Amino acid sequence: MLLSDSKQQVERDLFDDAVRAWGPDRAEELRADIGKVAGWLALISKYEIAIEADEPDFLVAPDADEEAENETA
Amino acid sequence: MKLHELSAVECARLIATKQVSPVEMAEALLERIDSLDPSLRAWETVDREAALATARLRERELGSDGLGPLHGVPVGVKDIFYTKGLRTTSGSPMFADFIPGYDATSVARLRQAGAVVLGKTVTVQFAYQDPPPTRNPWNHERTPGGSSSGSGAAVAARMVPAALGSQTGGSVLRPAAYCGVVGLKPTYGRISRYGVTVASWSLDHIGHLVRTVEDAALLLQVMAGHDPIDRASARVPAGDYLRAARQRDRAPRIGLVADSLDMARPEMASHLREVAGRFERAGAEVREVKLPAPMPDLLAIRAVIGLVEGANLHARALKQHPEGYAPKMRAQVEVGQLVPGAAYIQAQRLRRRFRPQMEQMTAGVDCLLMPTVSDVAPDTSTTGDVSFQSIWSLFGSPAITLPSGLNAERLPLSVQLVARDFGEETLLSAAAWCEDVLGPMPGPDGVQ
Questions:
Q1: Which of B307, B334, B340 sits opposite A3 (nearest CB)?
Q2: Which residue in B has a C-alpha nearest to residue A29's C-alpha?
Q3: Which end of chain A, N or C, is more open, meaning fewer C-beta atoms within 10 Å of its C-beta?
Q4: What is the pLDDT at residue A73?
Q5: Residue A47's closest chain B neighbor by CA?
Q6: Is ipTM strictly over 0.85?
């Protein structure tokens, strides 16, 4: 599914994903939970977050001192 | 003197001065557990032999130097904390016979301080939401809350003066509120999480349930401090929490989170305002503060993070051992796997973006004030509403709940105080002052 601030859209997409993953019967059993989660996803999707210069990288560049130590070793 | 009514501080003092024996104390509480627990079901495992052996050892140690601050004090441990040689089930049949070979750091520190572990208190499965067998001592038709269900019930019913808990959403403060006791969730990383079954890596906090603010400070004093084997353990030095809790004469500056009251039931919102008025008349400075975003949005951010991290943790085990999972836990893991990674990243980025604004709420005040729970304890088909507690799990801020009276049905009411990160000393001072204004909370009817 793609993020969307439309709860209905998110719920439809999640339900289709649940059918593919768990089968139609189980997906139906999960409908209430899916609806709840769809509401959460729609709420957080309405925010557009500008990237900040100091936003952390998930891959951290090695420290210069650490690199020098590795070369020496 | 009713031994079961003693706080942890009082118990430690009377034992250290040989007015009460550790064995006498342990026996009294074990007898009380025997009497009350068949109906309350707060305990998963009571380790009678080991507890009495430890109590006898503590008795022999009396008179020697270097007694710990919890010497001889009985405690309960939520059944997701590893206890060496004592089964730790995490509430799942998959771990019914699992016996850890080591203590969680928090448990080890309690033992080093002289505490006597009476046993393991009931936890909701994997610290999530499936209702436990535990009953609320105030009304057996009501939930004690969760996931630290057994700890809440055991402390409220005076089976033990203190018990460990954990909080990912609201699992320390909510059972404390529903059971009419004090619950403390310190800053994220303040107490080591090593040796505790993970529910969500970036949301799990260790906390405890007690009956006084001073006891909350005592246990925090014992357990706080950097743990090198827990990567999330804070390096900020521990404070002097006991001293802070004893400095209870300065009226705090309080920020009332007024816009949160929209999500509370009318009785709870009205009660919160009435308590704020009492604090103001007693000398506190109370002003209104606002959340940086609508509360439903903040709750959604936490919920997505917890859902995805929990699903990732349990996906493989659920596939291999579906019989080991209770219905709500199973549903969380299944639905959580459907959430796209982009949503998880969005939630974490929003968390990071709102955090400075949340910290700004505490500028110029000692603590925030809001309800701990949206309503009194509901029925046993649920463990209750996580809303008011989970914001502080999301942002990692220290929070404490204080019992603040009983409603017309004689169910506990409560209020929550929150401070800035690593502001536990300020929080405990403010909480101690508030505790004095609120007055003592009686024990549950029918378990005197």
A1: B340
A2: B331
A3: C
A4: 45
A5: B350
A6: yes
